[in-house]
Each structure stands twice: as C-alpha cells, then as structure tokens.
Amino acid sequence: MPKLIYHIDAIARKKNRDVLLLAFHNGITWDSAYLYGSADYQSPDHPRQKIIKWLEENEIGWEECADIANETGWQAYRDQIYIDVPFDTDNENYKKLINYIEDSGRNVKAEFPNTYFYFLTLSEAMKNAHHDEPGFWDKRAETF
Fold first, then answer.
1. 1 assigned to some structural domain
2. Is residue 122 part of a domain?
3. In terms of pTM, does the model score above 0.90?
C-alpha cells in the first residue's frame, strides 16, 4: 500500500533545525542503491531493523524519509530514516545515538554494514523552502 513520506529537507524546515538521517545501501553500488534501495531491509537481521529496535527501546522517534527533494527527477524510497534527535552534542539522546551508531573513530560501527549516517543543515534545507509554497509540486508535475 502506498505511504506518504517526507523529504528530509522538508522535515528540517518543519523542525526548524539541522536533522539526522540514516541510509542503508545493502552492499550494492551507490548508483544501484540510489535507484533500487536495499530489498531486504525488512529482514530482522538487517542493520536498519536493529537500529529501529534500539531507537524504539530508547524512546527515540524516527520516521521513513526521502532524500533532499529534487525538482528535476523522482527517486524511489531507499530505506532512509529520519531520527528525531537534534544535531546537538549536549543533547543526551544525541550522545546515546552517537555511542550506539559510531565507533571511537566516528565511523559507523562494523556491526551496521552499509549503513550511512548523515546530517542535513537547516541552511541547506532552506534552499528548497520554495517547495513548501501551496501548489508547488502540483505545478511542477504539470511540466514534468
């Protein structure tokens, strides 16, 4: 069944802050992941499911999200999730998340292969603020 998900830049604008994003590429090339996602992300052994379970156990909000919106093309969902924790080194949930996801070298831990941890600044997200204007996407679809 179709599900409405939001672009990560729209989430940043809604939250009015920098945001955190996880992407999962399942050992396939970036181009293939970009087009097709990782088909087995719902497997209980997939890093995505382990991380979601941890987020829920720690009462940290999350939701599926899309990449930064792009006016020149459409992208399939690629298993990304937005994590509802401010990008703030003083925030307790941020500290817990970083300790869970990253090793001491600030790389994603080996137990989460093909997992990518990003943040998007609000200033970058604001470059697409015009997307929030009423009817923007409807008008864009007419000329696509």
1. no
2. yes
3. no
> Which residues, 6+ apart, have CB-to-CB distance to 79 below 8 Å?
23, 24, 26, 37, 38, 41, 48
Q: Is residue 15 part of a domain?
A: yes
Q: Is the pLDDT of residue 32 over 80?
A: no
CA distance 40 to 50: 13
Closest CA to 33 of 115, 124, 117: 115
pLDDT at 40 (0 to 100): 65
Domain total of the chain? 1
Per the listing, tokens 């992208």 go with: 75
Angle formed by the axes of helices 92-101 and 47-57, to 10°? 150
Q: Where are the beta strands (DSSP E) in the chain?
A: 6-7, 19-24, 62-66, 81-83, 115-120
Domain assignment of residue 117, given as a range: 6-142
Q: Which range is least confidently modeled, 2-6, 56-60, 75-79?
A: 75-79
**Tens-digit pLDDT profile for residues 73-92:** 777 777 899 999 999 999 99
Residue 104 lies in a domain: yes
Question: At which residue do the structure tokens 């050992």 appear?
Answer: 27
